[in-house]
User: What shape does this take?
Amino acid sequence: MSRYVIIGNGTASVGAIEGIRSVDKTGSITVISEEDRPAYCRPLISYYLEGKTKLENIGMRGADYYSDSAAELLCGRKAVGIDADRRTVALDDGEVLPYDRLCVCTGSSPFVPPFEGLGTVEKQFTFMTLDSALGIEKSIDAASRVLIVGAGLIGLKCAEGLTGRVASVTVCDLADRVLSSILDADCAALMQRHLEEHGMEFLLGDSAVRFDGNTAYMRSGRTVGFDVLILAVGVRANTSLISGIGGEVNRGIVVDERMATSVDGIFAAGDCAEGFDASSGGKRVLAILPNAYMQGHAAGVNMAGGSEVFDKGIPMNSIGFFGLHAMSAGVYEGEMYEERTDTSIKRLFTKDGLLKGFILIGRSERAGIYTSMIREKIPLSSVDFELLKRSATTAAFPPESRRKMFGGAV
Amino acid sequence: MGVEFLYPEYEVIRSTDRCIACRVCERQCANEVHSYSAERGAMISDESKCVNCQRCVSLCPTRALKIVRSDCVLKANANWSNDTIREIYKQANSGGVLLSSMGNPKSMPVYWDRILINASQVTNPPIDPLREPMETRVFLGKKPDRMTRSPDGRLVCDLPPQLELSMPVMFSAMSYGSISYNAHASLARAATELGTYYNTGEGGLHEDFYKYGAHTVVQVASGRFGVHEDYLEAGAAIEIKMGQGAKPGIGGHLPGTKIVGDVSRTRMIPEGSDAISPAPHHDIYSIEDLRQLVYSLKEATEYKKPIIVKVAAVHNIAAIASGIARSGADIIAIDGFRGGTGAAPTRIRDNVGIPIELALASVDRRLRDEGIRNNVSLVVGGSVRSSADVVKAVALGADACYVATAAVLALGCHLCRTCQTGKCNWGIATQRPDLVKRLNPDIGSERLVNLMTAWRREIMELMGGMGINSIEALRGNRLMLRGVGLNEKELEILGISHAGE
Amino acid sequence: MKRVYVNEEWCLGCRLCEYNCAFANSGLSDMVLALKDKPVFPRIHVEGDEKITYAVSCRHCEDPVCVKSCIAGALSKENGVIKADPDRCVGCLTCVLVCPYGALAPGENGVMLKCELCLENSCGEPACVKGCPNRAIVYEERGETA
Assistant: This one.
């Protein structure tokens, strides 16, 4: 009977459990969870703050998930080392777990720059876990002024979640625009305007350099008073367990398309892993939930002796703020096709006869058709791109493609 | 042109309480009657374009629509009816010949409705078709006058070619062009499933339908459109069309706008050219000429297929039929003045020809009197509307009936009589691809099969009531019929007694 | 498993399926009450142009990328039917971003509405199929794509 150990209990971990169980119904599975709760939907923490979801709905699977999956969940425990030769994992309490196959799903951690005077700030948080969201919730009231450092996905979702519950939300970022990792300047400007209309304040191209109690001293020289500080500067993949044993690590733990690391018997998946990016052709940490699940699933299948390749990962995002959705995928290279109105932007990027990337703001209809064009590398010459660029529709595909898509079980 | 004096004939009544503005009516109306007014937030109608085809009514999911005849009328006048005046206005506007379609709608006598069927009581028992075998099969073709034996005493069985029908009904000629591909597909599939025949009309046979050839009558008409060797070989029988009940004495005209794509290829004429079928066959001016064509076609198909000659019911139909029966034809088809059409001059449709009931009775009697009834089978059409009409026709002497209007009704036709516009909302009398696809032949053929199956059951019930268990035994059995409200002359021509006699 | 299939050869683009769908999922017994003067959020959508139209609804994929991608655990597969839990959905539209068929769209309050084959509403069988005037939408078992 095989022994499977999974370090981490996020989306990739659940994918790995389900991948393993799709092949091996009997092997033992042990999941090591630093957080003291079953796997939950991590992106929901901002929706929880916003009141769009309840704590009882935040769990990723049902109450009996681990017992139904015959997986043992070790909560509140941390893996501190791996012995790849003996095939064991050491836990923080001294326990040593043997494994036949190991999957590292350690995710990422918030990066906190060494701000001067940060220690003087009484109410400071990062925004990665449910515990951090619950902590923020306890610290705020209707009169709170919140300063968020970082106008990326995490910072802004947190800002949206707090808007309306606090007196003010100010977001600063060294970048000159919001969501700089997924939006270009024009798109970011549109989104920023929308966020400002809903009460957020921005200090862009500017960032805190020093804190003193409830005051942030900005690079520009201005000062910002706040009651609660949230640091959402960025994240770092948790790779130390693998780098510690000499495994190949770059920005993430390097994996092949079967999710195997360079260390025999060890797989990695999710935000800690650096896998293949089908849109750019290189390797990249694709820290998004769908990829985490699919990588985890592939890792699980391969751990259990099956065969599953995941090489269709691409960067993509769907994120909405106050009803305005921004979707993006792939890379923004090549020729750009654009449609825009006062409240929407569509940008498609094509190169070498392929759709390489897109940004859609306020235009979400059937975006998955564009996504699959990128993922599946469907040549533009095989579709009516004139139609497709105006409207994401399978009507632009040749009839035989549609017959395949819609004519049978898929 | 100033005012045209033409006012909407119909009103679109839309229940604003029910209309959910789903715009299905708008999408389904090829005449563009319905539209959505964003300003008013409601559906609006331009009733001047409405032809009362009821497509919108039938698809409206909340039953919010009805189409009614406008009660905005001219002053009542028993002589100058509204319709007559309207026709005058139209002609004064355009200078053109009035065009119409489908059958004569005028209030002329319908003899079927003045004829009643007998039933057995006491002295000769009726037959229960649910318990006893009933034969509705008929064979069309020349029958031998007498049995002949070979010198060694064996029975000679070389019967001339026959069409075998599971019931005495066939689908009559409607050309591909006048009706759609899907209408043809529906008819072909239904005829095959039912064990009867449909008829190509003068439009040729689409290559997709050759596989239904064993249940196809291929037509040769004055324009000879689509006629070639494979076509003649493909059918089970060949019909020479001399005339049509809806428009006796004139030819046909399918406008070039309908000669597109496959229609053009099937008719073997260039796209966009008008398909003009001459009034006469230019090689037929006598029975002898007809005989030449009959035998040409027999030669071409090695005497394996019966030849049908189709004529319109006109004044001297009995003499014409007598001639045809001597021309070598195997089957005579007679089309009464109520027969349908995809387009005909209104005056011809409404004023030329005679009722099929009278034509049939006189032809059957004439052929019997001349001792040539077995030379030919008789098929009659021109508004056979029900199984009762079929039974009455058989009792008046028909071997079988042709139906077309009933068939297109089964396909969804609502008899709006605007086939000539080519915008049939039911996908039948149109070549517009978006409209043609509205008729799914899976549904169409199923409905045709249902209709004919129902008729066949009813025919068996009527036969059983008369104590007849084989339809052949009813043929020409006029004692089974009585007239009501008919005068002496009519009864004499029909060869039946008055009810009570 | 029986699924909803559309034959574009027979689809008329009348959009009755959309209205029948929205009605069947309205929980009301009167279509007028359910749909009149309201925005309509069907779970099937007619696509196409003047020549070709066809209705698209969830394919109920054997390997559903939407379920794998859902950030809220709102999508699940039960007996082959992919279901959306409106209490869990937060309207992030990630499923819209990943569905290669363009089969998903949000409803009035931003949460996802998707075809669940009418198995649990008052219709009991797919309303789009039942109401299609030209039998363009069928509910049947089909094997792998030919």
About this structure: The radius of gyration of chain B is 24 Å.
